[in-house]
Amino acid sequence: MTVRVALIGNPNVGKSVIFNNLVPGARQHVGNWPGKTVEKKTGKYRYNGEEYDLVDLPGCYSLTARAVDELVSRTYILEEKPDVVVNIVDASNVERNLYLTLLLIELEANIVVALNQMDVAKSKGYTIRTERLSSRLGVPVVETIATQKVGMEKLKKVIETAAKSPKPASMTYPSDIEGLIEKLVTILSADTSLVTHHPARWLAIKIIERDKEVLEMIQGTPLDSKIEEVFA
Amino acid sequence: METKLSDLKPGNAATVIKLTGSGAIKRRIADMGITSGARIEMIRNAPLGDPVEFKVRGYLLTLRRSEAEGVIVSTEAQR
User: Fold this and answer.
1) Which residues in chain A have Cβ-Cβ distances shorter than 8 Å to B33?
2) Quick check: A62 and B59 CB within 8 A?
3) Contacts across the A-B interface (CB distance below 8 Å)
4) pLDDT, tens digit, 9 for 90 and up, residues A148-159
5) What do you get for the CA distance between the two ends of chain A, in Å?
6) Residue-averaged pLDDT of chain A
7) Which residues of B touch A99 (CB under 8 A)?
8) What residues of chain A, 27 to 66, have a C-beta less than 8 Å from chain B?
9) Domain-by-domain residue ranges, chain B?
10) A112 near A134, Cβ under 8 Å?
11) Which residues on chain A are in Cβ contact (under 8 Å) with B54?
12) What are the boundaries of each domain within chain A?
């Protein structure tokens, strides 16, 4: 069985360095997304007898439907459903980076966080309580320094564990929003084809955000008017 | 005092009150961490006054002056 792993993170956090560390050079190649100008890199590595297919998604700050690179990443995670999504976080800039992490948790991806550039974080005088970050997010967190190949074996191990026993994390919003989400999830669940391909809770959150792509998905379906009633 | 983000001078810090405008630009600015309550500091102007560099949430972000005009901030004493 091949384990499918996607790498995602803000631009310039060391994603490609991690990709090149994990994938033995000879097997690496660069490919194009069908019909898109945004490039993705794919490669393979072996670990403990298993084969891992790695995809390096375009660097992005967010996962909106408005930017092609972001939509490519979001669509990949929703439709290809990789076994593990490795979210590479710049340890020297955790606050901005964790925004994407939360969006990935909303997407119900099976996440592993690689806290990269730990050397830069230390030189800036930051102390990161990795264990606490991991328990608060509900996802495994591995410290890495990709440019020095530090933490790569640990990362492979944690990816292996996450692939074998997926534990998607979740987030709870304030009760007024949770009330809305609950109502929308009930309505959305009626459309089985929609919710087989997209997590119902994620769709509900995106409807509240007025996400263009999700609103287009429900437009003209019988759900449309029921959803408008919730907001009336 | 409430003012536009674009009116801050180098070294001035403020707290974000709200984002005016709508659509993709507003969403993008919020995605980059400029949300109500965030501390933001004006760092410098480009030579012709546009774009403008700010420090927010521990990193440097450059905005067009027109985008900074849509962000309302408070320059009250820091919390």
Assistant:
1) 95-96, 99
2) no
3) 24
4) 999 999 999 999
5) 49
6) 89
7) 31, 33
8) 61-62, 64, 66
9) 2-74
10) no
11) none
12) 2-164, 175-231
Which range is least confidently modeled, A27-36, A49-58, A87-96?
A: A27-36
pLDDT at A34: 41
Q: Does B59 touch chain A (CB under 8 A)?
A: yes
CATH 2.30.30.90 fits B2-74, yes or no: yes
**B-chain residues near A98 (CB < 8 A):** none
* pLDDT, tens only, A60-109: 899 987 778 888 889 999 989 999 999 999 999 999 999 999 999 999 99
Q: Give pTM, 2 decimals.
A: 0.88
- Rounded to 5 degrees, what are φ and ψ at B70? -85, 0
Tell me: the pLDDT tens digits for A201-222?
A: 999 999 998 888 899 989 888 8
Whether residue B60 lies within 8 A of chain A, CB to CB, comes out as no
- H-helix or E-strand containing B43? strand B39-45
User: Is B27 touching A (CB cutoff 8 A)?
Assistant: yes
Second-level CATH architecture of A2-164? 3-Layer(aba) Sandwich (3.40)
